[in-house]
């Protein structure tokens, strides 16, 4: 039964990530396995015919999906709620954190491309001895494209942060060092681009608090 639940949790992680394989940390799986082994009532119910007949549905949809509607006061409803509250939420938090890190890496890549496009424009303008026109070698179009992609990546990153925070809070955790470390890494990587740093600071709760305090004092 425990192995079947572990397999289900791995499948849930894959569903939550849009089909991408997610490596659930061993310590998370170990903790959930211990929790399950100590839940004799749930273990017994999971071995029942009613639970076994439900399994194929659980493997095809996220456990919090509206598609998984069970009759009230049924054994299947009990199984779904127990697995969702006691196990699925932990997996959801892991997946959302993985997505957050991936979004941060994508944002970093897009901002690096913007930085390179701006450098190319500055270099060309310096060589020309004046500002570039819109059609000069397609450089300004590259800046426009890189700027739009960087903006989209930052929006995606911001949304990923919100979703990761919400998922972490459901299991009584916070993003803590993971989010701050990624944000600090991006700020260092793009410290020479003030506009990018300004955008990143908006995503930094510690910086936001500092700016709010300063504005109140003034």
TrEMBL record:
Organism this protein belongs to: Symbiodinium necroappetens
Protein name: Uncharacterized protein
